[in-house]
Specification:
Blueprint lengths: L3 H10 L1 E7 L2 E11 L2 E9 L2 H12 L7 E3 L8 H6 L24 E4 L7
Parallel strand pairs: 3-4
Antiparallel strand pairs: 1-2, 2-3, 3-5
C-alpha cells in the first residue's frame, strides 16, 4: 500500500531526523506527540546501527517523559531499548492482507508509525 499520504501527515506534525550518506538519505525517523507523551516511529534504516542512532537522537529530547516505540521482535532492538530505559511492555505483530510486501534490504522498517498504522 502506498504510504506517501500517511508519511506526509506524520512529517507535518513530527520532528524528523535522517541519516545521509553520499548526498542520499539512507534512513529516517520521526517523533511526535501522542497520548501521554511521544511516540517514536516510523524508523527506517539500512541496519541496526543506524536505527539505534536515529532512535537515540529522537529520544534524547524526551528523557523523563512517556516515550512509546513499537518495534517487532525481528527488529533486534528490544534488549537495547530496555538498556536505555525503554522497557518492553507488550509485543507488536506486523499484519498484512495477503502476501507480506517485499522488503528492500537497503530500507528496513525498525519501528512502526504505531501499531494501528503499521
Amino acid at each position: 500500500m502506498n504510504r506517501a499520504a500517511l508519511l506526509d501527515a506524520i512529517v507535518a506534525m513530527a520532528d524528523v531526523v535522517v541519516v545521509e550518506r553520499g548526498g542520499r538519505i539512507t534512513g529516517y525517523g520521526c517523533v511526535r506527540r501522542w497520548g501521554r507523551g511521544v511516540v517514536i516511529g516510523p524508523v527506517v534504516a539500512q541496519d541496526t546501527t543506524d536505527a539505534r542512532a536515529l532512535i537515540a537522537k529522537l529520544a534524547e529530547q524526551h528523557v523523563g517523559q512517556f516515550v512509546r516505540i513499537d518495534v517487532t521482535m525481528a527488529s533486534g532492538l528490544s534488549a537495547w531499548l530496555e538498556s536505555i530505559g525503554l522497557p518492553l511492555v507488550g509485543q507488536v505483530v506486523s499484519m498484512s492482507l495477503g502476501a507480506p510486501p517485499r522488503v528492500d534490504p537497503a530500507a528496513t522498517l525498525f519501528a512502526l508509525s504505531n501499531q494501528s498504522l503499521g
